[in-house]
Amino acid sequence: MTTSQGPAHQTWIELSTRITSQDLHFRSGQEEAALDSIVEVFKGTRVLMKESVGADEFLQLADIMLKTIRPYTARWHSFIGPDKRFISPAARRQFRKELLVLQPKLVTFAALFKSLARGAAIVMPPVPARPTASLGAVPVPIGIGESLSRPENADGIDQSERQHVANRRGTPLRHDADRLYNGIGLALSGGGIRSATFCLGIVQVLAEKKLLPKFDYVSTVSGGGYLGSFMSNQFTNNEPAADSVGADFDPNDEESPPIRHLRNSSKYLLPKTTLEGLKLVGQLLSGILATTLLVAVAPVATVRVSEPSLEDVFVRLTKIQGARREAEATAAAPATAGART
């Protein structure tokens, strides 16, 4: 018996008796328990690896299996909330969908561990490629894509978005089914007028380097929205992209009239003329006057509620009891007269 047969046998039993190789019923299956089961397989295999010194075949096969499972469990943990339950029904459906992809791989590993436990020779599966960050090596399609909350009209939105981006790039789509890849976005952060000023400098440098036409999207928030709305106003045409895009931002020449207007209007909350200043003062005074009148004229009534004394309570109870006796006597009188008749 080789050193790999014992731990291989234990791993085979774990894989063949857990959800890793069993169907997760749609109605009675619990997703949280299924995820915990796969995590237990992961943890148990790591323990066996630590204890199985010298079991080279088992260690190699177990390492490949854990590298196969790890990307799935790392992603699934983001589906779980603080209460140890899936955050939404969409997350549950996504878990089931990805579990169906992982299960055939684990069934293959179970068969390999079974063969290894019986002393048979096995062929090691390939080591899964390690996922790395990509800056364009892997094409990323433009559009909503696969999402936990993909809207019903996502296909129409994707088609319109692709057509708009293609026209802006100067390469219109020939067919509606054509796809575009690697969209580039420009994010303008918030922070008031200081953020807008900083973002303007960044955009001017991009225009100077002829890089501004390369961007397909603009995302803004707060102060960055001041510059973002100005950019949207400048690029309203739907014509193909040209070298003129971003020319107004190029700082090499004398500052363009649109940029000068943008700088002069940066204090957009303050009045620019005497009339606007008078209107602002009038609004301020009218607000103060309205608030003062509301506080001064509003009636304030205080109602004093006195607690009844014990004597008042006794008198009221006596009256109630007397009224009750009279009612009982009145009701009994007709019955007595009928009995005498």
Rounded to an integer in angstroms, the radius of gyration calculated over CA atoms is: 39 Å
The largest sheet, given as strand count, sense and whether it forms a barrel, is: 2 strands, parallel
What is the tally of helical segments?
A: 10
What's the overall average pLDDT, rounded? 79
* Span between termini: 114 Å
What is the structural class?
A: mainly alpha
Order of the strands making up the biggest sheet: 1-2
Approximate shape:
flat
Structure description:
With 341 residues, the protein is an all-alpha fold. Helices cover 56% and strands 2% of the residues. It has 10 helices and 2 strands. It has a two-stranded parallel sheet. Strand 1 (185-188), helix 6 and strand 2 form a beta-alpha-beta unit. It is flat and about 100 Å long.
